[in-house]
Write a structure and sequence with these properties.
Strand content: 5-15%
Number of helices: 11
Structural class: alpha+beta
Radius of gyration: 20 Å
Number of strands: 5
Distance between the termini: 22 Å
């Protein structure tokens, strides 16, 4: 530890800080009736633009009448698809986005910056959008499907796809939602048939940043908010000294489909839990590794 003092930000404080983002997201899903998952990606794109130098982009959008916000959301979908596919000569233009940005921005801009945009938008969705917006998403889904419970609603962990038609990795949305197709109203998973999958197939390896200790309770609460009852067992690295920080853990989930939902088609997922970065990948036993696994 370097002696630096860190301020702990609660989830409520985090949501308050992102009040403008929450208001705009609510307009998209509640007032305009747009798809909550798609809007999560749209918000990730707009936040990426704002952090990339397009000042006050979100607040500018929020100041517009609803029909223009809807048009801008349509343009955002086009931009996201452009990031994930080859730029078509017949691609539509984005005049409203260009006008609002007050900079020379076009679909070519998104295509040229796609390699940096993909991971950065993904990080914004997992680190900002999910913790600050997921409660609004849940309320929206409950309004559309009153029978859904908290445990039956899953928030995607990743923003970027390689599909030309979807904003989410091919199959990941279906996989994510199907995780909950057999959940009961009380949030408990159906009894799993014997030997459906081994523990290794349901285990993830988790690492934490040195100097930013994460507790087991924090991780459990994070995934409980997203998935409900999903963890079978949690194994944190044992430390000798009370001042020593655990740097890794293993989590055994109740079903392997939770892992598919978390990874959404990528090898490693990054989350931000109470302002601290957490990396997760599928656990690979040593005897199954073709080469020594020195790095996560």
């Amino acid at each position: 530890m370097d002696g630096t003092q860190y301020t702990v930000v609660t989830l409520d404080e985090f949501k308050l800080f992102h009040g403008i983002d929450r208001t705009l997201y609510a307009v998209l899903v509640r007032d305009l009736g747009r798809d909550p998952l798609e809007c999560l990606h749209i918000m990730g794109l707009w936040l990426w633009l704002e952090r990339g130098g397009f000042c006050n982009f979100v607040s500018k959008i929020l100041s517009l009448p609803p029909f223009l916000i809807n048009e801008l959301a349509d343009e955002a979908v086009i931009c996201l698809k452009c990031i994930n596919t080859q730029l078509s000569e017949a691609a539509a233009e984005i005049p409203l986005t260009h006008s609002l940005a007050k900079k020379d921005i076009s679909l070519q801009f998104f295509h040229d910056n796609k390699h940096t945009a993909r991971p950065e938008i993904q990080s914004l969705i997992s680190g900002v959008c999910i913790p600050s917006l997921s409660d609004i998403m849940e309320k929206s889904w409950r309004t559309e499907s009153p029978g859904l419970t908290h445990s039956q609603i899953v928030v995607p962990s990743h923003a970027v796809s390689t599909s030309s038609t979807n904003l989410i990795p091919a199959g990941s949305l279906v996989d994510s939602l199907s995780v909950f197709s057999d959940l009961r109203g009380n949030g408990n998973v159906k009894a799993r048939p014997p030997n459906e999958t081994s523990r290794n197939e349901r285990t993830m390896f988790v690492t934490f940043s040195k100097g930013y200790p994460v507790t087991e309770i924090e991780v459990r609460q994070f995934f409980a908010r997203l998935f409900g009852n999903c963890i079978e067992s949690f194994h944190m690295q044992e430390v000798v000294s009370p001042n020593e920080q655990a740097l890794y853990a293993k989590i055994v989930f109740l079903r392997s489909s939770f892992i598919r939902a978390i990874l959404s088609g990528v090898g490693k997922a990054k989350f931000t839990i109470n302002g601290k970065h957490v990396w997760m990948r599928k656990f690979v036993p040593k005897n199954e590794r073709p080469l020594p696994d020195l790095y996560l």
